[in-house]
Amino acid sequence: MNQQVKSGKVLSPVTPWTERAVPGIDVADEQQSLKAIYTEPTIECPECHALVTRTAMSFNVYVCPQCDEHLRMKARERLNWFFDQVNSELGQEFVAKDPLNFVDSRAYPARIKEAQQKTGETEALVVMQGQLKGLSMVACAFEFDFMAGSMGTVVGDRFVQAGEKAIALKQPLVCFASSGGARMQEGMLSLMQMARTAAVVERVKAAGLPYIVVLTHPVYGGVTASLAMIGDVHIAEPKAMIGFAGKRVIEQTVREKLEEPFQRAEFLLDHGVIDQIVHRHALRDTVYRIVSKLMNLP
Ligand SMILES: [Zn+2]
């Protein structure tokens, strides 16, 4: 099945498999132990294809322990990890509507319902207010698994509320961006969110508060063209793909082959689009340090 688990290399960093008590399993019985190993949910690293247990991955904040690949994190999980203490969640009163009665191969409400069931979220943006190392701030994260983290009216509403809350509380705003762009099922209303979110960011800045953007794989389209590129500081996770149009579309337009690492965070850092690339393990410390500096805190 997989070499790593058999050879005992990919194990939970906390308790080795062989020492973990599994209910109803006699660890001395080899057949039974192997069955227990095989039934533990594992995540396959898309880069090195190592099978790592879900527990081990979550302890390592979804960074592959074998090759350091940064796997995608769920929005809620990310914010709960980012904050030491969450005080409240914002914007839950906004729920998706179907203003255009849009139907493509399927009706838009059916797509929303499916995304809600798949992710357990009501929309593609999660906003929380809490504390990072004693520093209060408002942070939001895109849920990419919810219709590719696309920005519809509810995402706009929630982001605007996050900005307004930051202004009201005089706290910095942090955004973990990960999106395929605007939500085509909402047409023009979706595109309007670019202007709305950019406007609220301007108000946050006018209030003298920092707005930090963390670009996580991948960020494209209308989100790149608005809230994700107007931060005071742009941090990206290693190897994150960031762009407006996708690589294939650009290749077809300019009729040139675009080689790796085109649109990767490393490429954008070389070309001055982003400020720094930070390993996920150092992200909380980095955001804390930048915010403290920008807010003139000791
Ligand atoms: Zn890996």
From TrEMBL:
<comment type="pathway">
    <text>Lipid metabolism; malonyl-CoA biosynthesis; malonyl-CoA from acetyl-CoA: step 1/1.</text>
</comment>
<keyword id="KW-0444">Lipid biosynthesis</keyword>
<feature type="binding site">
    <location>
        <position position="45"/>
    </location>
    <ligand>
        <name>Zn(2+)</name>
    </ligand>
</feature>
<comment type="subunit">
    <text>Acetyl-CoA carboxylase is a heterohexamer composed of biotin carboxyl carrier protein (AccB), biotin carboxylase (AccC) and two subunits each of ACCase subunit alpha (AccA) and ACCase subunit beta (AccD).</text>
</comment>
<feature type="zinc finger region" description="C4-type">
    <location>
        <begin position="45"/>
        <end position="67"/>
    </location>
</feature>
<keyword id="KW-0275">Fatty acid biosynthesis</keyword>
<comment type="similarity">
    <text>Belongs to the AccD/PCCB family.</text>
</comment>
<feature type="domain" description="CoA carboxyltransferase N-terminal">
    <location>
        <begin position="41"/>
        <end position="298"/>
    </location>
</feature>
<dbReference type="GO" id="GO:0003989">
    <property type="term" value="F:acetyl-CoA carboxylase activity"/>
</dbReference>
<dbReference type="InterPro" id="IPR034733">
    <property type="entry name" value="AcCoA_carboxyl_beta"/>
</dbReference>
<feature type="binding site">
    <location>
        <position position="67"/>
    </location>
    <ligand>
        <name>Zn(2+)</name>
    </ligand>
</feature>
<keyword id="KW-0276">Fatty acid metabolism</keyword>
<feature type="binding site">
    <location>
        <position position="48"/>
    </location>
    <ligand>
        <name>Zn(2+)</name>
    </ligand>
</feature>
<dbReference type="GO" id="GO:0008270">
    <property type="term" value="F:zinc ion binding"/>
</dbReference>
<dbReference type="InterPro" id="IPR029045">
    <property type="entry name" value="ClpP/crotonase-like_dom_sf"/>
</dbReference>
<keyword id="KW-0443">Lipid metabolism</keyword>
<keyword id="KW-0479">Metal-binding</keyword>
<comment type="function">
    <text>Component of the acetyl coenzyme A carboxylase (ACC) complex. Biotin carboxylase (BC) catalyzes the carboxylation of biotin on its carrier protein (BCCP) and then the CO(2) group is transferred by the transcarboxylase to acetyl-CoA to form malonyl-CoA.</text>
</comment>
<dbReference type="GO" id="GO:0009329">
    <property type="term" value="C:acetate CoA-transferase complex"/>
</dbReference>
<dbReference type="GO" id="GO:0006633">
    <property type="term" value="P:fatty acid biosynthetic process"/>
</dbReference>
<dbReference type="InterPro" id="IPR011762">
    <property type="entry name" value="COA_CT_N"/>
</dbReference>
<dbReference type="GO" id="GO:0005524">
    <property type="term" value="F:ATP binding"/>
</dbReference>
<keyword id="KW-0862">Zinc</keyword>
<feature type="binding site">
    <location>
        <position position="64"/>
    </location>
    <ligand>
        <name>Zn(2+)</name>
    </ligand>
</feature>
<keyword id="KW-0963">Cytoplasm</keyword>
<keyword id="KW-0067">ATP-binding</keyword>
<keyword id="KW-0863">Zinc-finger</keyword>
<dbReference type="GO" id="GO:2001295">
    <property type="term" value="P:malonyl-CoA biosynthetic process"/>
</dbReference>
<dbReference type="Pfam" id="PF01039">
    <property type="entry name" value="Carboxyl_trans"/>
</dbReference>
<protein>
    <recommendedName>
        <fullName>Acetyl-coenzyme A carboxylase carboxyl transferase subunit beta</fullName>
        <ecNumber>2.1.3.15</ecNumber>
    </recommendedName>
</protein>
<keyword id="KW-0808">Transferase</keyword>
<keyword id="KW-0547">Nucleotide-binding</keyword>
<dbReference type="GO" id="GO:0016743">
    <property type="term" value="F:carboxyl- or carbamoyltransferase activity"/>
</dbReference>
<dbReference type="InterPro" id="IPR000438">
    <property type="entry name" value="Acetyl_CoA_COase_Trfase_b_su"/>
</dbReference>
